[in-house]
What does this fold into?
Amino acid sequence: MDAERQDSATRTIPLFPLQTVLLPGATLPLHLFEPRYRQLAVDLLTGTVPDRRFGIVAIRTSAVREVEDLDHVHPIGCAALLGDSERLPDGRFDIITRGERRFRVLDIDTSRAPYLVGTIEWVDDAPVPPTAGRAVEGLRDAALSAHAVYCDAAWHRDSWATPEPEVGPGPLSYLLAADCLLPLADRQQLLEETQPLRRLRMVSRMLRREAGFLTKLRAVPAPPPELIQLGLPASLN
It folds into this structure.
């Protein structure tokens, strides 16, 4: 499959619609059993799809059983880089992916390959103003504090870690959210936000809200329904 850049603004990329959101910098394990996605794995591993890269895009509603057009998926997705993979004796694959760059889906082609192929454009963050140093520091501290409160309520202390100090405000919000079991709508909202400082404020608010729920319920979080079993038919896998 040809996934070369079509021009300076757009390119094509295989699409894998799921009932979850991949965030930049986060890892996502996938179990591929449907023939079209087994073929995608083969194409990624053999170089038919360049750079071992494809796109993950969230389905708008579980009522969608087959993605056929733009209305069935959220407009912003995340490129996934194929990492470790294992081909099982019956032809299924277990793979590990890592989120990279965000994209906007412009068109979906259902006939070009066994799997969906999307025409996309990359979506980057707006630059943080050079004069925003004090705001960055305050929002970073607030987000790290909210992350610690959530993780203390949800996980064993040795199962999570604070991001390194050199992590910038752009990727920091994604790293903090990746540690936490946020609903799909929250993760999609974070994915679509292109203002890094606003996204830090958003993730801080989300994590404190969820930590409050956990403290009141005195329970550890269960995975959101969309993460319980990605191999279910509703995932279109």
Summary: The helical segments are 35-46, 133-154, 169-178, 184-192, 196-217, 225-228. The longest helix spans residues 133-154.
